[in-house]
Design a protein that fits this description.
The chain is of the alpha+beta class and 385 residues long. It is 42% helix and 22% strand.
Length: 385
C-alpha cells in the first residue's frame, strides 16, 4: 500500500488558488519515500551559448528514464519538470534502480554533450528530521491531465542538501540496469504564441515566509486568473502554431539523448518517422492527438514554488509585474521572470492516446533564466544590511 500512496490520493478540482491555501486537502508524504533529483550543472552557461533546447531535452530524458522504470513496476510517482532537471518522489523500493539507471544516463549525457547531469537522493525521513514540511495532493482542471501539487519547503530543502553533498558526482553505476528512454520525443519547432501580438512569460515564485506559503501562492495564482484568465486562456501551446522540426541536426540530438549514439540508420529511421508525422497529424486520430497534446502540456508545476509558462500581451505582463512587485515589497514572495517570443517543448509519448506528457519551457531557457533572477534576489536578501 505504501507504494500506491500517490495513486490512491483523491483528485482535487476547482480553482487552484483556493486549493493551495487549504492544508487539509493535502496528505503527508510517507517518511519511507525518497526524493530523487536530477540537475544539469552550470545550465545557465549552456543556455547562454544557445543550447537551451538540449538542456530541456536532457532534463526530459531523465524524467522518461524514471517513468519507464515506475511503469515497469506498476507504481505511479509524482515528478516535477524544472527546465534543466527534474525532481521525483518515489517509494524506497524503486530508488536503487532509479539512481543507478540515472547514473548510466549521466555518463551517456556527459560523453555526448559535455554536460554534467547531477543525480542525488534524500529520504523523506531526513527532510522531516530537519523540521521541513512536505505534503501533496493531486489536481486537475481537465478530464485528462492530473498534476501533483506540493506545499511545504521539503523539496527545496532536499535540493539544497543534495547539491551541497554532491554525493553522486563521482559515483558509478554497477551496470545491473539498462537505460530505457523509449517514448522520448522532440519533434516540435519553436512554438509561437496562439496570438501573433502575444509573448511567452516564464514565471517562478517562492514564498518568503513558509508559514504563509499557501496564502502567498493563492494570491499569485488568483492574480494570474484575474489578469490572464483561466489556464486554458493563458496556454502558450496551440494546435495552429505547432510545426514539426525535421532538421537532421535536431533529430540527431534527440538520437544522442535517447539511444546514446548518432548512427546514420537511427537518424534516418527517426527522420522517416518525422515525415510520417506530417501525414499522420492530418488524419482524424492525428488531430485528436494534437488536441490532447495541448490539453496535456505541462505548463504549471507546483513543487513548493510556482513554476509556470503562460502567454498574453504586454499590458497583461505589466499588470502582473505590478502585482508581483506589491507582494514582493510586502515580503510575501520573491519572483523570477523571463519573457520570450516562443515556447519550446519536449515530450514523453509512450502511446498516442492518453499516455503522453509534454514539457514546456520558454524559449531562450525560460526556467533557467527566471531561476537565476530568483536566486539573485534570495542571495541579496540573505546578506546583512
Amino acid at each position: 500500500m505504501e507504494d500506491q500512496f500517490y495513486e490512491s490520493l483523491p483528485v482535487r478540482q476547482g480553482a487552484i488558488g483556493a486549493i493551495i491555501n487549504q492544508d487539509d486537502l493535502f496528505s503527508t508524504v510517507p517518511e519511507e519515500w525518497e526524493i530523487v533529483l536530477t540537475d544539469i550543472r552550470s545550465s545557465s552557461i549552456a543556455v547562454a551559448y544557445g543550447m537551451h533546447r538540449t538542456v530541456n531535452l536532457i532534463a526530459t530524458g531523465s524524467i522518461v528514464c524514471v517513468l519507464n522504470i515506475a511503469h515497469e513496476h506498476q507504481v505511479m510517482i509524482p515528478f516535477f519538470f524544472g527546465g534543466d532537471g527534474a525532481t521525483f518522489l518515489m517509494p524506497g523500493t524503486l530508488v536503487e534502480e532509479v539512481v543507478e539507471t540515472l547514473l548510466i544516463y549521466r555518463e551517456q549525457t556527459e560523453n555526448n554533450f559535455g554536460m554534467e547531469l547531477r543525480v542525488g537522493s534524500l529520504s523523506v525521513a531526513e527532510v522531516y528530521a530537519a523540521g521541513q514540511k512536505l505534503k501533496i495532493t493531486k489536481y486537475s482542471n481537465s478530464p485528462r491531465f492530473i498534476i501533483p501539487v506540493i506545499i511545504g519547503n521539503g523539496l527545496n530543502y532536499a535540493e539544497q542538501q543534495i547539491k551541497a553533498a554532491d554525493t553522486f558526482s563521482v559515483a558509478k553505476s554497477s551496470g545491473r540496469f539498462d537505460v530505457n528512454l523509449s517514448g522520448l520525443q522532440c519533434r516540435w519547432d519553436r512554438i509561437a504564441p496562439p496570438c501573433d501580438d502575444n509573448e511567452v512569460v516564464t514565471l517562478l515564485v517562492s514564498a518568503v515566509q513558509l508559514n504563509n506559503q499557501g496564502s502567498a501562492f493563492s494570491k499569485v495564482l488568483t492574480e494570474l486568473d484575474d489578469i490572464y484568465g483561466v489556464p486554458q486562456k493563458r496556454q502558450p501551446i496551440s494546435e495552429s502554431k505547432l510545426r514539426i522540426n525535421s532538421t537532421l541536426l535536431d533529430i540527431g540530438q534527440a538520437m544522442l539523448v535517447r539511444v546514446g549514439t548518432q548512427r546514420w540508420y537511427n537518424v534516418i529511421k527517426e527522420w522517416i518517422s518525422v515525415i510520417y508525422g506530417y501525414f499522420y497529424f492530418r488524419t482524424k486520430s492525428g488531430k485528436t492527438y494534437l488536441t490532447t497534446l495541448v490539453e496535456m502540456a505541462d505548463t504549471l508545476v507546483l513543487d513548493g514554488r510556482i513554476n509556470t509558462v503562460i502567454t498574453g500581451n504586454r499590458k497583461q505582463r505589466e499588470r502582473l509585474l505590478a502585482a508581483l512587485e506589491r507582494l514582493e515589497a510586502s515580503e510575501e514572495i520573491h519572483y523570477g521572470i523571463h519573457v520570450s517570443q516562443a515556447s519550446v517543448m519536449s515530450c514523453y509519448v509512450p502511446d498516442h492516446k492518453e499516455g503522453h506528457i509534454h514539457f514546456v519551457d520558454g524559449s531562450g531557457g525560460g526556467y533557467t533564466q527566471a531561476s537565476r533572477m530568483l536566486k539573485e534576489k534570495s542571495v541579496i536578501k540573505s546578506i546583512p544590511a
